[in-house]
Design brief:
355 residues, alpha/beta, ornithine cyclodeaminase, domain 1, Rossmann fold, eight-stranded parallel sheet, seven-stranded mixed sheet, 11 helices
Length: 355
C-alpha cells in the first residue's frame, strides 16, 4: 500500500514536531542529499507556460528512490481565492517503480524553500548577521523568517510589500514571537538599509528590478527567491556582476533565475560544491553574496524522504491502494471481475424494451 498524506495530515505532522524543528530537520536532509550530488540523475524541470502562469513537473532519482513534484505558479490566483503555488509529490522505489508515498507539497514547498534559503545563508552570510529584510510579503514570507530565526539567529526583520495588507498579515502572524522584532518599512529601500540579509520573494511574473546596486551594501547576503521562471527577475544585472553568485543546478538556473539576464559564460558556483568544501562560500567580510534560488527537484526529493520518515515515526497518514496488486500480476483484467459481473446482471435482456 502507498502512504497518503493529505493537507490535514501535513498540518498534523508540522504541529507535532513544531515548525522550527521541521525546518531545521528538513534542512539536514537537504544538505545530506546535496552532498550526494553525483549519485543523482538530474534534469531541469519540465514547464508548460501560458500568459498567466506555469505548471511544472520536477523529477529526480538516485539508485534507490525516484521522486517528482507537480507544482504551479499563477500570481493571479488570489483573485480566485486560490494559492499562487500548489503542489503534490510522489516518492517511489526505483527497483520496482512502486509508489511509496503520495503527499501534499504546497505547505512543504514553502517549508523546504525556507529551509534551503537558511541552509545556504549559513554558508554565505556573515556569521554576525542578525538583521534581515524581506521584500515581498506573500504566502512564503513567514516561512523564510522562521527559518532564518531558527537556523541563523536572526532577531530583527524589516518587511515591505507594495500591498500593505500583505505586510500587515505577516505582522499578525509573526509579531508575537519571542526574540523577534518585526517592523513594516515605508519602502524597499528603507527595508534593506543596514540589513545583513535581504530576501526578495515577489510573485509577479515579469522582468522586475526589486533591488538596484545603490541599495546593496558591502557584506550583504541576498537571498533571491522570487525570480524562478523565464521572464521573471528581481535583481538589477549590475548586482550580479559585483557579487559571488551561488545556484542550485546551473542548467536550470540559467533558464529561470536572475542570471537569465546575464551572458551564458557568466560565472556561478553550484551549491553542492560549497557544501562539500570544494569551493568557498563567502570569501571575505565585505563581499556581496547572492543565492539565485529557483527551487530544484533534489530539495523536493529530500522533503519527500523526510515526510515519509516523519509520517511513519508518528503514524500519520493513511494507506491507499494507489496501484493494483492483483493475485496474478499478469492478469490485470481479472481486477474487473466484479465489475463485469455487476454490469452483466444489470444489463437488459436481449430484445427487452427500454422505457
Amino acid at each position: 500500500m502507498t502512504r497518503y498524506i493529505d493537507f490535514n495530515d501535513m498540518q498534523k505532522l508540522v504541529r507535532r514536531v513544531g515548525a522550527d524543528t521541521f525546518i531545521t530537520q528538513l534542512a539536514g536532509y537537504i544538505r545530506a542529499d546535496y552532498l550526494r550530488w553525483s549519485e543523482f540523475e538530474k534534469s531541469a524541470r519540465v514547464a508548460n507556460h501560458n500568459d498567466v502562469g506555469v505548471i511544472e513537473l520536477m523529477p529526480i532519482s538516485d539508485r534507490s528512490l525516484y521522486a517528482f513534484k507537480y507544482v504551479n505558479g499563477h500570481p493571479q490566483n488570489t483573485l480566485f481565492k486560490l494559492p499562487t503555488v500548489m503542489a503534490f509529490g510522489v516518492l517511489a522505489d526505483m527497483a520496482t517503480g512502486y509508489p511509496q508515498l503520495l503527499s501534499e507539497l504546497t505547505l512543504v514547498t514553502a517549508l523546504r524553500t525556507a529551509a534551503t534559503s537558511a541552509l545556504v545563508a549559513r554558508e554565505l552570510a556573515r556569521p554576525d548577521a542578525r538583521c534581515m529584510a524581506v521584500i515581498g510579503n506573500g504566502a512564503q514570507s513567514e516561512f523564510q523568517i522562521l527559518a532564518f530565526k531558527a537556523m541563523l539567529g536572526i532577531d530583527r526583520v524589516r518587511i515591505y510589500d507594495t500591498d500593505r495588507a500583505a505586510s500587515e498579515k505577516l505582522l499578525r502572524n509573526l509579531g508575537r514571537i519571542d526574540g523577534l522584532e518585526i517592523s513594516i518599512a515605508a519602502s524597499a529601500r528603507a527595508a534593506v538599509s543596514g540589513a545583513d540579509i535581504v530576501t526578495t520573494i515577489t510573485a509577479d511574473k515579469h522582468y522586475a528590478t526589486i533591488l538596484t546596486p545603490d541599495m546593496v551594501e558591502p557584506g550583504m547576503h541576498i537571498n533571491a527567491v522570487g525570480g524562478d521562471c523565464p521572464g521573471k527577475t528581481e535583481l538589477h544585472a549590475d548586482i550580479l556582476r559585483g557579487a559571488r553568485v551561488i545556484v542550485e543546478f546551473e542548467e536550470q538556473t540559467r533558464i529561470e533565475g536572475d542570471i537569465q539576464q546575464m551572458p551564458a559564460d557568466f560565472p556561478v558556483t553550484e551549491l553542492w560544491r560549497v557544501l562539500a568544501g570544494e569551493q568557498p562560500g563567502r570569501e571575505h567580510a565585505g563581499q556581496v553574496t547572492v543565492f539565485d534560488s529557483v527551487g530544484f527537484a533534489l530539495e523536493d526529493f529530500s522533503a519527500l524522504r523526510y515526510v515519509h520518515d516523519l509520517a511513519a515515526a508518528h503514524d500519520i497518514g493513511s494507506a491507499t491502494e494507489l496501484v493494483p496488486t492483483p493475485a496474478d500480476p499478469k492478469d490485470l483484467f481479472a481486477c474487473l471481475g466484479e465489475a463485469r459481473r455487476g454490469a452483466a446482471e444489470s444489463a437488459p435482456a436481449p430484445g427487452a424494451v427500454l422505457a
